[in-house]
């Protein structure tokens, strides 16, 4: 028996939050390296150089810089994403005149995930702006874009945004975030569901097994990042560089990067992103699916 819609929404929200926590804890050092390479591509020779330089200068804490806002960002994003995902699946059923509870095709699930990402982007943008600024604060000071010796904590970054731009300052990079999320999550959920079905069918195992869940989650994440990585690079530039003053919009930032640094600059930091995607997204879906299943069983669904 299906649980009450409110109970179902709470379960989806909670499972998404648990998945987001697992995602951050397993992949934060690679995310920090990615943001540094996206925003200052000429400072590092590659992933290993960036990773070891950060560790040598700031230790393990440097690689986990921005973990608090990253946790808030991923918990809020995935909680809203998976809550909206369930609701958007119902919306897809309504639009296609399917009975409630009918199993959707992989493409229909991908469409529901793409629609849900619009809502998650609104929750994600403010916290990701704080995270990106914390992660690239050392480089901003080293290049003279901001005065050196500033305290870099979550609270100091929040106060700076409120003082200089007001509450709407937290939504710098929102357009880039939505442009990234909509196609990205279509690929994410589509690849995840398709891979899980294919993997289970080929191996003759259950779709809920640990191996199909982790591999499919990693595969879905890889498809997402390969599709939208240049957009994410632009978003990071806008959010980090706006710390030094008003930053140009999405299209002007794209053309400026291509004109001055070349098209390949849009792919700076792709290596740590692809390394991170399998453990992080595998952990995300494993934690989400198992916690959701446990809560559904607990309410007798």
UniProtKB/TrEMBL annotation:
It is found in: Mitochondrion membrane. GO terms for biological process: mitochondrial L-ornithine transmembrane transport. Keywords: Membrane, Mitochondrion, Repeat, Transmembrane, Transmembrane helix, Transport. InterPro entries: MCP_dom_sf, MCP_transmembrane, Mitochondrial_Carrier. It is a multi-pass membrane protein. Pfam families: Mito_carr. GO terms for molecular function: L-ornithine transmembrane transporter activity. Coiled coil: none annotated. Its main location: mitochondrion. Solcar repeats lie at residues 7-91, 104-198, 208-294. One of its GO terms (cellular component) is mitochondrial membrane. Belongs to the mitochondrial carrier (TC 2.A.29) family. This is Solute carrier family 25 member 15.
């Amino acid at each position: 028996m299906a649980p009450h819609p409110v109970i179902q929404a709470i379960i989806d929200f909670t499972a998404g939050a648990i998945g987001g926590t697992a995602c951050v804890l397993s992949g934060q050092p690679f995310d920090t390296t990615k943001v540094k390479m996206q925003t200052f591509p000429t400072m590092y020779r590659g992933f290993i150089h960036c990773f070891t330089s950060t560790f040598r200068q700031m230790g393990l804490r440097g690689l986990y810089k921005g973990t608090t806002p990253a946790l808030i960002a991923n918990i809020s994003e995935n909680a809203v994403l998976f809550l909206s995902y369930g609701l958007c699946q119902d919306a897809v059923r309504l639009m296609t005149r399917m009975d409630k509870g009918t199993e959707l095709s992989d493409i229909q699930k991908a469409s529901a995930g793409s629609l849900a990402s619009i809502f998650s982007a609104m929750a994600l943008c403010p916290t990701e702006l704080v995270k990106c600024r914390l992660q690239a604060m050392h480089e901003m000071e080293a290049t003279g874009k901001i005065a050196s010796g500033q305290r870099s904590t979550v609270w100091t970054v929040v106060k700076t945004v409120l003082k200089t731009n007001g509450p709407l300052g937290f939504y710098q990079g929102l357009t880039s975030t939505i442009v990234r999320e909509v196609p990205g999550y279509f690929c994410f959920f589509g690849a995840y569901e398709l891979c899980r079905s294919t993997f289970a069918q080929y191996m003759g195992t259950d779709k809920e097994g640990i191996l199909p869940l982790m591999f499919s989650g990693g595969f879905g994440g890889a498809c997402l990042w390969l599709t939208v990585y240049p957009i994410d690079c632009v978003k990071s530039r806008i959010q980090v560089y706006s710390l030094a003053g008003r930053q140009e919009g999405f299209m002007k930032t794209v053309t400026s990067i291509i004109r001055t640094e070349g098209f390949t600059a849009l792919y700076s930091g792709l290596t740590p992103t692809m390394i991170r995607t399998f453990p992080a997204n595998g952990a995300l879906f494993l934690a989400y699916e198992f916690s959701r299943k446990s809560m559904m069983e607990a309410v007798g669904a």
